[in-house]
Design a protein that fits this description.
The structure is a homodimer. By secondary structure, the first copy, chain A, is an alpha+beta fold. The first copy, chain A, contains nine helices and 16 strands. Chains A, B: InterPro entries: GHMP_kinase_C_sf, Mev_decarb, Mev_diP_decarb, MVD-like_N, Mvd1_C, Ribosomal_Su5_D2-typ_SF, Ribsml_uS5_D2-typ_fold_subgr.
């Protein structure tokens, strides 16, 4: 193979990834649980180029910044080492994440890249191996390899991959609040928490038992327990982040208002629980029945979009370039 | 003495009291630092009544609820045990804390009660002994015995009292945002944090070293360091509270907006740092020079009032009833 195209989708964590035990190999300090969603895919084409003297990377048709290209190249280096091939590649990526959606693009981006690069360089990787490879690009990308609910295990390089989890049929309402850039990148904020928060060791320990509880809730098909854990855990992640020195706060007054509105909806009988990643937007975990009314109610606070479980990363085209 | 009147003022903590090592004796898990302010005093009269068969307690001219009267009576029991007197008392208390100020009334209330009761029952207590006595009514009352900046030491019953601290000349801007009742009492929330937050042990440990830093900043007359510690520590307390199960959040969207505004004022060159207790109101630690402009700027977000260092609890009248 000298050319492959793969597509992958973002994922939203119910039990968060926040902290590494190994920065080089991107091994997480604790496991996590997420839903790969059925919206906002990234489609990435990797084409080997015998005459190239370096990798190139374009995003949405525009040559990417040096730092972004270096991260792409680093993942290609891993693929080339395994494949025993030296050839550089041209990488073209189209992200359908609206720039104002505030969703992290790296999970879909690096899982699509891993799938396309493996295929283009002729590697036959099973889902675990592909998840491990995607992880090297961006930790949460390991989960976007898997469709729907996915658990990403902590452990050593061999053990740390994502795999599917059976659980309740859920929907998510993404509430978009801000078009502004993040004040601090999640990679940087994670590092600050690890270095400065007195709560960090307890956060890691609690994430482990929280994940155990969430997996039990999935196994028991217990949406309420899963939702309760999701919101509790999101509060703890933002508490951890706020406890850094200097304090970091991703949640704006508007985000807090959405958490309040979700609590009110719950008091009124709706099944819905709020979470938020390293940004101001809030994602509401809900049921197929309650997704519409919840989205309708929250529309006065931000732009809403209902999403469900999406497919894992997949190669959608292969070919030998002429 | 059979009658005494004492007056005391609220205090605002820079390093917070949040967690007990002994609930019965109200011994804190860590020390704390506060400013007794020059506004909103409570004035309390204790009159021994030979013919009474129980203590009575009226607040602002209205007989208090049974639970409040029981807490007052419990403090009088301690005084009576030391004085070797059995006589019950009538307690009349006038609080000048506006009900919508959202300031805790128990610190001024129990320190005024301790001072008046000790005098009425004929005890001669020095400042340490009075602080220890006030502590038994409400932990933070131990600090309102002391004028201005006060450190309240953790330790056993003998060791846990407040005493004065020399430090920079500061002002506080109290920003009142809400007239609503607290969703959870601070006593209850503190207990929930102790029982359910995975961050609680680290909170206690970090409060200890935070207090050491704050006392160093006071000794060095270093307002900037003291302010920075104050805001960092407030963020950590609210992070701890948010990490409880179920999560508790005292800060409303409006509170968050004040924290943001304070950061902006600081970026514009003002010396100001935000803190908040177990409620939505924000208190801004600032300098004598910056108090006016800071208060003016924050007036668009809430009602503001500038306060400074106030006096400690003091007996203002003594007498033998006819």
């Amino acid at each position: 193979m000298t050319r492959a195209v793969a597509r992958s989708h973002p994922n939203i964590a119910l039990v968060k990834y926040w902290g590494k035990q190994n920065e080089q190999l991107i091994l997480p300090a604790a496991g996590s649980l997420s839903l790969t969603i059925d919206a906002f895919p990234t489609t990435t084409e990797v084409t080997l180029d015998d005459r190239a003297t370096a990798d190139t990377f374009s995003l949405n048709g525009v040559p990417a910044a040096v730092g972004q290209t270096a991260r792409v190249s680093a993942l290609l280096d891993i693929v080339r080492a395994v494949a025993g091939v030296d050839t550089f590649a041209n990488v073209d990526s189209i992200s359908e994440i609206p720039t104002d959606a505030g969703l992290a693009s790296s999970a879909a981006g690096f899982s699509a890249l891993a799938a396309a690069a493996a295929a283009a360089y002729g590697l036959e990787l099973d889902s675990r191996a592909l998840s491990r490879l995607a992880r090297r690009g961006s930790g949460s990308a390991s989960r976007s390899v898997i469709p729907g609910l996915a658990v990403w295990h902590a452990g050593n390089d061999e053990e740390s991959f994502a795999e599917p989890v059976n659980g309740p049929d859920v929907r998510m309402v993404i509430v978009t609040l801000s078009t502004g850039a993040k004040p601090v990148s999640s990679r940087e904020a994670m590092r600050t928490c690890m270095l400065t928060s007195p709560f960090y060791p307890a956060w890691v320990a609690s994430t482990k038992w929280t994940l155990d509880g969430a997996l039990e809730a999935c196994r028991d098909n217990d949406f309420t327990r899963l939702g309760r854990i999701t919101e509790l855990h999101a509060n703890r992640m933002h508490a951890l982040i706020q406890s850094a020195d200097p304090p970091i706060r991703y949640l704006t007054p508007q985000s807090v208002a959405v958490f309040d509105a979700v609590a009110q909806l719950r008091a009124a009988g709706r099944s819905c629980y709020a979470t938020a990643d390293a940004g101001p937007n809030v994602v509401v975990l809900t049921t197929p029945e309650d997704a519409e009314p919840v989205a309708r109610h929250l529309a006065e606070l931000g732009e809403t979009r209902i999403v469900g479980a999406g497919p894992g990363a997949a190669v959608i085209e292969r070919g030998i370039e002429p």
